[in-house]
Design goal:
The protein has about 375 residues and is of the alpha/beta class. It has two domains: about 120 residues, Aspartate Aminotransferase, domain 1; about 240 residues, Aspartate Aminotransferase, domain 2. Bound molecules: 4'-deoxy-4'-aminopyridoxal-5'-phosphate. 4'-deoxy-4'-aminopyridoxal-5'-phosphate binds next to helix 3.
């Protein structure tokens, strides 16, 4: 079966699995212990993983706060900033095409008296940086804009948006879950980003682990936010809870491999994407159209409309040979709000499918499209 739903999740690499197994079996210590090797070895594993994640993003090790995934990371930042800075203001800016793990938190915050501006996007799902600037007010405490869209693959102009926020002294958060491991992210050069969310299972790491990267000042102090979880004080008291050592070790290994292969993988994904588009065009001619832009995007994610064919019926029919989805796995029962936001009508949305590739797909296996 050809797996083309890598934006939903990816397979675990053998090196990642092997690394995790060590911490699921012999090295089962709690890294917060101090006196014996089992604890010290687990602590070393956490620190090694932290180094790999920091390297992948060009961040400092102390800025990496491990969480159980991007949903938690997004919740932590939005609720944590809202709680910590509500005296300063109660206005938040986001966009209409964020993942539900941002949008639903914003809706929740609205019930707590916060005012949220949901920015429109262009035909490919991008936010206009000028719109961000125009909407920042005296009482704006946070701007949260997705880096790369999970349904369309479009990249936002994060350097410009983060710069605007920096100049206006407003915190900026970006959900970078879909871009990590596929597009170069240089946190160090983008000092206007205050917080960044990511997740291991989108780039061949395990599910249930991710991170929030939090900007530190020259003294190594992180931007203060109210923690989501209080308890044992792990992760600089920002994220308490016994470490999921095997998951964090697996995340580190996936980050190490992604860092090493970033360029090769990007170029592979670009070639695979071109091949897939060619195959679809050859096979379906004018019965296929592309909702995604073909530039300035995450390589390997395409959103395709099969004109006159219902997407659910198509995907069910294809499921024995090709695995793909209609959009986000986290809101797959409703017609895509992302495609609505870019102006597609309901009929076109019901005919649209997302294919998301992995660098571990091969040109050869894509040829299954020739037999459709
Ligand atoms: N943000 C984006 C853009 C995503 O694609 C996802 C995964 N669907 C998430 C957040 C949630 O990530 P996790 O599965 O790690 O909670």
């Amino acid at each position: 079966m050809l797996y083309l739903d890598n934006s939903a999740t990816t397979s675990i690499l053998p090196e990642v699995r092997d690394k995790m197994l060590t911490y699921l079996t012999s090295e089962f210590g709690n890294p917060s212990g101090k006196y014996y090797d089992l604890a010290k070895n687990a602590d070393l594993a956490i620190n090694e993983a932290r180094t790999h994640v920091a390297n992948l993003l060009s961040a400092k090790e102390i800025e990496v706060i491990f969480t159980n995934g991007a949903t938690e990371s997004n919740n932590m930042v939005l609720k944590g900033v809202a709680d910590q800075y509500s005296d300063k203001g109660r206005h938040i800016i986001t966009s209409k095409v964020e993942h539900k793990a941002v949008l639903d938190v914003c809706e929740y915050l609205e019930t707590k008296g916060f005012d949220v501006t949901y920015l429109d996007v262009d035909q490919f799902g991008r936010v206009d940086p000028h719109d961000v600037e125009r909407n920042i007010r005296e009482d704006t405490i946070l701007v949260s804009i997705i880096w790369g869209n999970n349904e369309l693959g479009s990249l936002n102009d994060i350097p410009s948006i983060s710069n605007i926020c920096k100049n206006k002294s407003v915190f900026f958060h970006t959900d970078a879950t879909q871009v990590i491991g596929k597009v170069e992210v240089n946190w160090n050069n983008l000092s206007g980003i205050s917080f960044l969310s990511c997740s291991a299972h989108k780039f061949h790491g395990p599910k249930g682990v991710g991170a929030v990267i939090i900007r530190s000042d020259q003294y190594g102090k992180l931007i203060p936010i109210t923690p989501l979880l209080h308890g044992g004080g792990q992760e600089s008291h920002i994220r308490s809870g016994t470490y999921s050592v095997h998951n964090i070790a697996g995340f580190g290994e996936a980050a190490k491999i992604a860092y090493k292969n970033l360029e090769i993988n990007r170029s592979k994904l670009e070639k695979l994407e071109l091949k897939l588009k060619d195959l679809l065009t050859d096979q379906f001619y004018d019965k296929v159209s592309f909702n995604s832009d073909n530039k300035n995007k995450i390589p390997g994610i395409i959103n395709v409309r099969f004109i006159g064919i219902n997407n659910e019926i198509l995907l069910k029919k294809l499921s024995p040979i090709i695995a793909a989805s209609t959009g986000s796995a986290c809101s797959s029962t409703e017609p895509s709000y992302v495609l609505q936001a870019i102006g597609l009508d309901l009929r076109s949305i019901r005919e649209s499918v997302r294919f998301s590739l992995s660098p571990h797909n091969s040109m050869k296996e894509l040829e299954v499209f020739k037999s459709l």
